[in-house]
Hints:
Elements: H1 3-28, H2 30-56, H3 62-101
Amino acid sequence: MSEEESRQEGLRSRSTDAVGDLANALLENPLFEQALATALGMGEKAAQAQKRAMDAVGLPSADEVGRLERRIRSLSDRLEGLEDQLDQMAREVGALRGQLAAGEEIPANQESLKVSER
Length: 118
């Protein structure tokens, strides 16, 4: 390791230690803790005020839009499942019609799917 790299590594190590010491000092300071709690409380109050304002003008909140998006995605997934089931049923009915047209015997497990002739 060159002298320059060694010096850079030492500087990084001291910087990391200094940042850690500063963070610990801030977290132990009651005035900083109170200021942080106040700032977080104000953020919550601002979010509540924003929600009330959005409700007043009839606009949905981000949470409501997110819930709606998840619900729509869920319904879309269910609809795709139903479409797949319908496609499978259509293939089975087509196969049964083909069997009937050819005069083949319908398997017993598909007797309930037998198409009545009019």
